């Protein structure tokens, strides 16, 4: 327990001091009910110890570094499944049969186009707009094109909105990129699989067709799978909270995209690459590790640490292996950033500070190195995370609605002034 106190002010009563337990130890259960008649609740800043829902979708054992979707280990899904199959699993709790999979893939493929007026929407942004800023706007805007999405009580409408979201995310993401580099948009192609189609929309130009490498397309698909869901992380919790008001799925997912953008969450993949570039040379790693350990310096090692994993993030292991495969295929085995990243990991994992605090590389640590090697600019990294996380967001949104969840509404410990009389302007 820390020696910090929160002052709880209750109208008409004397303010009382309450001890605050440090977030990493657990919540302080405050019997506000006895004081205010409003019922008992826990004080848990950062929701360190609060389960806000029941869920059947994803299981994490943070101590052992285990991540399961529908019971299947993430390593097996990343190596043996594909993104749309994993999406089906998250939505249905079971792997699809061959017929189910074929029908699902066909349905997604038929919905990849976006309304032609969406193109004008993009043209309203500045060319130097961050693609995440564009994505937040255009995903929310889908609800303006599909009025059936507004009726979330209708299961058929919910299902078609989910399909539209998964199908159109790559198109919208690639459009955001093409707009930023001043190139014409590339239409989706039905003869390509999900990841090939995304890469083609990113990199084909009117002058030259993109030559799709099966290794790179497979790596892209793996990256999407590794991001597909992670139970009640900040962006998924945001989707659930927004969705609990009964808002439409496009608005709820746009809220999730906004939450994902922050550098403490999905924005960390972009921040990792910026950090590795700033380190620039293995000889400067110690300096950055020292900065990360300095309590008076806000700098943190980006891509390190996790709220739940107190052991290796299993996704980071697969990501590291994929980085080796992709960079090997591209003849970039000696990539200086990969070398810095590996050396940084080694130094941090042997350092007392990181060992004691159980800070290990997370999913964001190696993903940027792979994406950069594929030619994807850093500003698109979090967009790619959002694309991969969309099935998870939808799965949780659907589960919440099926459970008839109540509106999400946390409580607070009020620490402001107690009741007082208004002072007229000339007396202040
Ligand atoms: C997809 C994802 O969202 S994965 C996470 C991506 N984010 C990052 O990589 C950003 C860097 N990491 C972090 O900022 C944090 O580790 C988070 C946000 C991931 C987790 O945060 P929390 O669970 O709230 O941990 P918290 O911030 O309390 O950190 C615990 C302790 O470890 C330290 N710490 C945590 N992460 C780091 C880091 N990356 N570098 C240095 N110190 C760190 C904190 O300073 C704190 O120290 P203290 O106990 O002495 O005050
Ligand atoms: O679970 C979390 O808090 C963050 C994370 O790793 C993710 O969303 O993938």
Essential attributes:
single chain; 428 residues; mainly alpha; Citrate Synthase, domain 1; 2 domains; three-stranded antiparallel sheet; two-stranded antiparallel ribbon; 7 strands; 50% helix; binds acetyl coenzyme *A; binds oxaloacetate ion
What would your notes on this structure say?
Helix 2 packs antiparallel against helix 9 (214-227). The chain is mostly helical and 428 residues long. The chain folds into 2 domains: 5-52 and 409-423, no CATH class; 106-407, Citrate Synthase, domain 1, CATH 1.10.580. It has helices at 32-36, 74-80, 83-92, 98-109, 118-123, 131-145, 155-180, 194-203, 214-227, 234-243, 249-260, 268-279, 285-293, 314-329, 336-350, 352-356, 364-373, 381-402; strands at residues 5-8, 16-19, 28-30, 41-43, 58-61, 66-69, 72-73. The strands form 3 sheets. Strands 5-6-7 form a 3-stranded antiparallel beta sheet. A two-stranded antiparallel sheet has the order 1-2. The chain binds acetyl coenzyme *A and oxaloacetate ion (OAA). Acetyl coenzyme *A (ACO) binds at residues 24, 46, 264-266, 268, 292, 300-307, 357, 359, 362-364.
SSE inventory with pairings:
Layout: E1 5-8, E2 16-19, E3 28-30, H1 32-36, E4 41-43, E5 58-61, E6 66-69, E7 72-73, H2 74-80, H3 83-92, H4 98-109, H5 118-123, H6 131-145, H7 155-180, H8 194-203, H9 214-227, H10 234-243, H11 249-260, H12 268-279, H13 285-293, H14 314-329, H15 336-350, H16 352-356, H17 364-373, H18 381-402
Antiparallel strand pairs: 1-2, 3-4, 5-6, 6-7
Bound molecules: acetyl coenzyme *A and oxaloacetate ion (OAA).
């Amino acid at each position: 327990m820390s020696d910090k106190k929160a002052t709880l002010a209750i109208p008409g009563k004397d303010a009382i001091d309450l001890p605050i337990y440090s977030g990493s130890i657990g919540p302080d259960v405050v019997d506000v009910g006895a004081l205010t008649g409003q019922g008992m609740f826990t004080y848990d800043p950062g929701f360190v110890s609060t389960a806000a829902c029941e869920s059947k979708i994803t299981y994490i054992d943070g101590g052992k570094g285990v991540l399961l979707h529908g019971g299947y280990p993430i390593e097996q899904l990343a190596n043996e499944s594909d993104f749309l199959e994993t999406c089906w699993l998250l939505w249905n709790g079971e792997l699809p049969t061959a017929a189910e999979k074929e029908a699902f893939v066909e349905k997604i493929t038929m919905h990849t186009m976006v309304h032609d007026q969406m193109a004008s929407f993009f043209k309203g942004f500045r060319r130097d707009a961050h693609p995440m800023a564009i994505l937040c706007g255009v995903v929310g805007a889908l609800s303006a094109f599909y009025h059936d999405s507004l009726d979330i009580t209708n299961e058929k409408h919910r299902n078609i909105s989910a399909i539209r979201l998964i199908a159109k995310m790559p198109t919208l993401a690639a459009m955001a990129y093409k707009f930023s580099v001043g190139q014409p948009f590339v239409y989706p192609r039905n003869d390509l699989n999900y990841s090939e189609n995304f890469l083609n929309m990113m990199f084909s130009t009117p002058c030259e067709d993109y030559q799709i490498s099966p290794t790179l397309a497979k790596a892209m698909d793996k990256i999407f799978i590794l991001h597909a869901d992670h139970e009640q992380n900040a962006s998924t919790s945001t989707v659930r909270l927004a969705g609990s008001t009964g808002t439409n799925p496009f608005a709820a997912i746009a809220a999730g995209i906004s939450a994902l953008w922050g550098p403490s969450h999905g924005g960390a993949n972009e921040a990792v690459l910026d950090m590795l570039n700033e380190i620039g040379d293995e000889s400067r790693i110690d300096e950055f590790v020292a900065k990360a350990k300095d309590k008076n310096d806000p700098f943190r090692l980006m891509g390190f640490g996790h709220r739940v994993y107190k052991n290796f993030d299993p996704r980071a292991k697969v990501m590291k292996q994929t980085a080796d495969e992709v960079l090997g295929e591209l003849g970039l085995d000696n990539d200086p950033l990969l070398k810095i990243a590996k050396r940084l990991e080694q130094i941090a994992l042997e350092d007392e500070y990181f060992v004691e605090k159980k800070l290990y590389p997370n999913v964001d640590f190696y993903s940027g190195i792979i994406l950069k090697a594929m030619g994807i600019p850093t500003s698109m990294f979090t967009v790619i995370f959002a694309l991969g996380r969309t099935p998870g967001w939808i799965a949780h949104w659907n589960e919440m609605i099926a459970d008839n969840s109540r509106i999400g509404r946390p409580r607070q410990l009020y620490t402001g002034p107690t009741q007082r009389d208004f002072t007229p302007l000339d007396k202040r």
